[in-house]
Design brief:
By secondary structure, the protein is mainly alpha-helical. It has 17 helices and no strands. The two termini are 34 Å apart.
Amino acid sequence: MMLGITITVFDSSMSNVALPAISRSLDIPASQSVWVVLAYSLTVVGCLLPLSALAERIGFRLMFGLGLAVFLAASTSAALSSTMTHLVVSRVGQGLGSAMLMCLFGGILRNTYPLSQLSVGISLNAFTVGIMAVVGPTLGAMLLQWFSWQAIFLVNIPLGLLAYLGLHFLPDIPRRSGPFDWTACALSAVLFALALYGLETLGRDAVQAMLCLLVAALIAWALVRRSWGQAAPIVPVDLLRIRSIGYSVAASAFFFAAQMAAFVALPFYFKAVYEASYAQVGLYLGAWAIGGALMAPVSAYMSARFPVAILCALGSIVMILGLVGVIFANGDNVVAWLLVCMFFAGVGFGFFQTPNNRAMLGGIPRHRSGAAGGMQATTRVFGQGMGTAFVGVAFQLGSAYGPVVGVSVAISCATVALAVNVIRHFDPTPDARF
């Protein structure tokens, strides 16, 4: 499973680094090269929930094997691409393969670890993601320095083949029987893809974005009505009605929005305000990832001993203070100050993840573990899309103020996550239903 996590994180981070090289090689404007990332993201967010429901019926092991096969075939196709159309189609295939893997991670954790040890598995997951988030862009930059951009897609092939060796170690999870709701599956895919596309285009074309969001809202209304009475709906409204899970999903969405808003805005902020070099920008972002990775085992230990709302609120506060410190950094030791602030922002991020994910996955019955994994992954990807969209709108204010407003957006999203956890802490019936 860790190799599956590695290739999905690698692919996402390295493709972002390669956009300028792809733009030059294929002789396309930068605005078109964004579709290399957008095609992948839209496919992932649209397919996660339907695939998680399908995995409950065909089995996690079969879905994992099929996901690896699709991802490896699409990676090979992407490496052989010579036109933008070919590359975008290949990225859609990679997004489908990634979704087939990502929708399983939460469910595999829920069925591998007993509830008392679930935080250990979640922290190991978070640690792996944190380390790969540092290694991925660095490895991508090195490959681009020595080879063409196609090399970043070839790296996936040996990693995927290694992942196949561990396929038989995945736990045997009982399959769900019964009919599959293909209509809800299609509606769910269109809903999340439209919503994410609307958010992504909010800063460039407000009319088109609002139209997409309006249609997505209508589809959401129809989908909730369709799913309300079902025992195991594609969109897990039965799980979201459990207050502890609803709080976890809401807090996670805004916290991941804060993280992505920070990661999009901070490189521009460091360049504009502190005249940082590209190496320094990478160092600052690396400090965040290291802080998050180091905090993962600590938060795992504490999440079994302290209330989730308190731990997540503390994580939000530490992340907010770290970002505020970045804004007010000055003096002769500004580089050291920024490294410390980014490290503590990462510490807050890592401190939040494990207890919140434990509350999300631990409160779900094992027979709904597939839906839990899809819900967790969808929340993360959609939250990151929100953060990117909010910063895009901030940048429309102009290059002089955009980065500052972008960092402020990250702080605001983290503050909303903090507010959700304050409400969760004072809710007298956290295990009741909405």
